[in-house]
Amino acid sequence: MPETAETQTTKKTKKVQLKDMFAILFSSKIAMVGLVIVLFWVFVALFAPFLTPYTPFEQDWKAPNQGPSAEHILGTDELGRDLWTRLIYGARVVLVVLPVSENISLPGGTAIWGVVVALMIGATLGLIGGYKGGWIDELVMRLLDAMMAIPVILLYLIIVVAIGASAVNVVIAISIVGVPGIARLVRSLTLDIKTREYIRAAETRGESAWFIMFVEILPNTRGPIIIDAMLRIGYAIFAMGTLGFLGLGMPPPSPDWGSMVAKGRAFILTGNPYAALWPSLAIASLVVGLNLLADGIREESMRYQ
Questions:
Q1: Any transmembrane segments, and where (predicted)?
Q2: Would you list the DSSP string of 131-160?
Q3: CATH 1.10.3720.10, domain 109-251, yes or no
Q4: How confident is the model at residue 223 (pLDDT cuts 50, 70, 90)?
């Protein structure tokens, strides 16, 4: 079936938008540094089984708490498990795979799933509140304000303690904590966009409120939402590390970065800081990389406006 002129125009517009997006990305040195850091962790997470001869649970009883060596390039933990292996398999849980159960896993890491679910719920609430206004907006915003009044770390602890520690429950906790901020962002964008002429035109055509919110308004909020999502993935990774450190993250013997730090800190003063050092650097570098990527894109986007 031949393409219509409208379809060809839409394809050209998408190509131009994609080209502009890459132009913004590559023109920012800060964003490129962040991108390299993030891509490194994505690469090692994707190809973890090919980057190490060990499994994350394999123990070498002859070499517990050892420093870097030819056999174990980053050293071993208190059980003789290879730290490099546990580090890159931990990255898989964060960025690539969500372990639902022992036999079931979903593509997409725990932190990413948490932010995606929060985006879906928060964006919907923000669109409804911002477009509808009135008592609906007041009700939604006051409930979200009440959630934001609770300190974030305390809210994480309450949720995880209430429903238990697992990858799926960590996703639920990240989602609940992230919803208020995303909803407020989308609401503020919606309040601005709904005054535009093309929204008035859609209303004049008799389009439904749901069509206007999700087809006309939501696509025009994607820039700020994408940047905010990158930052939130970093916050989610930091939250996973905090929960793991407190023993409320991934259940053992999962290679959770936070729990690795918690167990490794007991051996810092005995001359083996590596078990705590490497996962700490992993968390810090990935969060910093995401923040640099988001900040660089945001700065360049403002220059292009």
A1: 21-48, 111-131, 143-164, 170-186, 229-250, 275-294
A2: HH-HHHHHHHHHHHHHHHTS-HHHHHHHHH
A3: yes
A4: confident
